[in-house]
Predict the structure.
Amino acid sequence: MKERIASLVANNRVLLKNFSYLSIIRVINLLLPLVVYPYLIKVLGGEKYGLVVFAEAIIGYLVILVGFGFNIAATKEVSIHRDDKKKLGEIVSSIFLLKGVLFVASVLILAIVLFFLPEGGNYKLLFYLSLWLCLNDIIFPIWYFQGIEEMKYITYITVLTKVVFFGLIFLFIKEESDYLYVPILNGIGVIVGGVIALYIVFKKHKVAFVIPTFQALKFYFKEALPIFVSQLSMKLYVSSNKVIIGAFLGMVDVAYYDLAEKIINMLKVPQNMINQSIFPRISRDKNIGFIKKAFKLILVVNVLLSLCMVVLSEHVVVFLGGKEMLPSKKVIDILTVTVPIIAMSNVFGLYLLIPFGFNKVFSRIIVASGLFYAVQMFIIWKFVSFTLLNVAYVTITTETFVTAGTYWFCVKNGLWKPKKLSV
């Protein structure tokens, strides 16, 4: 038994190392916002804090435009060609150039939208400052480090910038009117982290920046396009919830939903770490046996996490936000159902359809799910009424739709063979 474990560790040393680094990143990204959350909700109040979250939710659509699916498509390309410096230079240069163009487009789009929304008033500045989310996507090449399976650099940079700049929140944000410091401090952290990351890529790793050919740009654009379409559709039902809540219910309700979402995201951390750790290997090896073993572990872990949260949700809400945030509890209890459902759809979509070349199939499933989400929201708007719970229920049905769709296509294309029940 010991020899088997030793052999398993030896054969997966890189995977385990990257998983460890990703664990640190996820813990930092999860815990630090939760540490400052009680302080921000107390100092800024539900209204202003909800406004900050609402602005970030709006900018989230532009983040999808800037990202354009490259975080998956480029990771795959880097992982395949990581030993070819010339090809690596072409990939990295093309992705940075494409992201740069898309970032300029995102700024122009925001300017046009805000021009036709004069009622935004003084809050326009908040939306512009919230563009740090787009900036982070363009100058922090997580796709490169994932592709070469060197997650230690991301870990060091993340820990350094997050600890320092989350600490500054306690120094600069003292009253409700200081809400603009939230995106400002985040933006400073993004710039510092991005500069360090770029130095590692171009100086330490000696990846040459080249002017890519039009054909190269076209190729990487087309490779990422189906993923972009799917992510945009996914964004419709992942982040539109807070936008809809803000528009129909108010910013305090946005704060309630945001706390519930933060807690649910805490449950998704193990799954996200597994995704980032093994996706490069799956893209390279395409080992279905390995994927099926991972599926069993993933399902058990996510079901157990969901059950634990149902029991502890009230205590977690009171601990983080106080009793005034208890409306978040019912939302959490509903959304915990999505944790194992999303874990399964990740296996069928991210581990099977995309690595095995069914990008367009995956994209069509996500687009269909976005339409399914929109139809449900329209029905609620016209015939029922928007509430926090109704929005949460729609999230469950939409995620179930995605999982069913990815599973069906995996079975149809021979990527997954369901076990036959013995009579």
Observations:
- The CA atoms of residues 230 and 363 lie 4 Å apart.
- Residues 13-67 form the longest helix (55 residues).
- The two ends are 34 Å apart (CA to CA).
- Residues 28-238 form one domain.
